Putative N-acetylmannosamine-6-phosphate 2-epimerase (Paradevosia shaoguanensis), 223 residues
Amino acid sequence: MNYKLPKGSLIVSCQARADNPLHGSVFMAAMALAARDGGAAGIRANGAEDVKAVKAAGLPVIGINKVFSDAYPVYITPNFDSARVLVEAGADIIALDCTPRSRDGEAPEILIRRIRDELGAEVFADISTLEEGIAAEQWGATYISTTLAGYTEYTTKTPGPDLDLVRALAARVKAPIVAEGRYNTPELARAAIDAGAYAVVVGTMITNPREITKVFAKEVLGA
Ligand SMILES: CC(=O)N[C@H](C=O)[C@@H](O)[C@H](O)[C@H](O)COP(=O)(O)O
C-alpha cells in the first residue's frame, strides 16, 4: 500500500486561531515553508484558505475544518461539505473526528467512505481511545491518529502525550498509527516512533511562538 505520508516522518501542524497574532494564511504558508526546510514531510492545516496557502511547501497536506458550535462537541471536519472544500483547496488527506460523539453532519463511518470514494482523498481518523481507533480502521480510515486523546469528555488530559495509546493501537491496528497531541519535545516525538507510531504530528511547540514563549517565561519569571 502506498501512503501519501512517508513512514517514520515528522508532520508539522500549522494552525493559528483568530486570537493568535500569527492568524492568517500568509503566516501559515511561511510556517509551512520553514517546516519543510527543517525536515517536515507533511503539513496539517485548518480551513480551505490555509490549506491552499500551505500547498506552497509542496508537501502532502492534511486538511481539517474546525467548525465550533455550542450544540455539538465534534468540531474537526464534522460533515461532508466541510471535507469537500478542503479537497477543492488542495488537501491530499482529510482529518476528521472519528469519535462516536454527536455532530452536525454524517456519522464518521459514512464520512470516511464518502471522502475516500467521492473525493479520492486519504482519511486521517482523529480518535481518543483504542476502541475508537479499532472502529475507524474497520470503517476504512487510512491513518489512525491519537489527536483527541485527553480532549474528549471521557479521556484524561495528561501533561505529556498519550504514549500508552500509541502502544495499544500499534498492538491491535494494522493501519499506520500517527502520534499527535502534546509531543512537546524531540525526545517525546522519538518515543512515539519507538512505541510503534508510523509518523508524529507536532503543532504548538513548533508553530506557536506565543505558547513557546510562555514555557520560557514561566521558567525565567518563576511564574
Ligand atoms: C485537540 C485539537 O483540537 N487538536 C488540534 C488538531 O488539529 C490542534 O489544535 C493541535 O494543535 C494539533 O493536534 C497538534 O497538537 P499539539 O499542538 O499538542 O502538538
Notes: The chain has a mean pLDDT of 97. The chain is about 40% helix and 15% strand. Residues 9-221 form a domain with the TIM Barrel fold (CATH 3.20.20.70). The pocket of N-acetylmannosamine-6-phosphate is lined by residues 13, 15, 64, 147-148, 151, 180-183, 201-204 (CB under 6 Å).
